[in-house]
């Protein structure tokens, strides 16, 4: 079982990387609205990178469960997972919005 401090650190990484990804995706939309598609693409790439880091943290939890190390489910963990899923959805939508601006 993960130590409480280690679990909290992993949870915070999910929240931070998810928040960074969502912010980067929003910046991509703002850049596309201004016609700066190069910056928009760069921001989408940053969002993807942040989500990859979050995925690494999430994978560590899943692998622990697979080994039989139970993770205590807390409201904070549920919040982190929710935050991450929202960031993934937001990034996917931002990517589509950038493509719509590109097609103009």
Automatic annotation (TrEMBL):
<keyword id="KW-0598">Phosphotransferase system</keyword>
<keyword id="KW-0813">Transport</keyword>
<dbReference type="GO" id="GO:0016740">
    <property type="term" value="F:transferase activity"/>
</dbReference>
<dbReference type="Pfam" id="PF02255">
    <property type="entry name" value="PTS_IIA"/>
</dbReference>
<dbReference type="GO" id="GO:0009401">
    <property type="term" value="P:phosphoenolpyruvate-dependent sugar phosphotransferase system"/>
</dbReference>
<feature type="modified residue" description="Phosphohistidine; by HPr">
    <location>
        <position position="79"/>
    </location>
</feature>
<feature type="binding site">
    <location>
        <position position="82"/>
    </location>
    <ligand>
        <name>Mg(2+)</name>
    </ligand>
</feature>
<dbReference type="InterPro" id="IPR003188">
    <property type="entry name" value="PTS_IIA_lac/cel"/>
</dbReference>
<keyword id="KW-0808">Transferase</keyword>
<keyword id="KW-0762">Sugar transport</keyword>
<protein>
    <submittedName>
        <fullName>PTS system, lactose-specific IIa component</fullName>
        <ecNumber>2.7.1.69</ecNumber>
    </submittedName>
</protein>
<keyword id="KW-0460">Magnesium</keyword>
<dbReference type="GO" id="GO:0046872">
    <property type="term" value="F:metal ion binding"/>
</dbReference>
<keyword id="KW-0479">Metal-binding</keyword>
<dbReference type="InterPro" id="IPR036542">
    <property type="entry name" value="PTS_IIA_lac/cel_sf"/>
</dbReference>
<feature type="active site" description="Tele-phosphohistidine intermediate">
    <location>
        <position position="79"/>
    </location>
</feature>
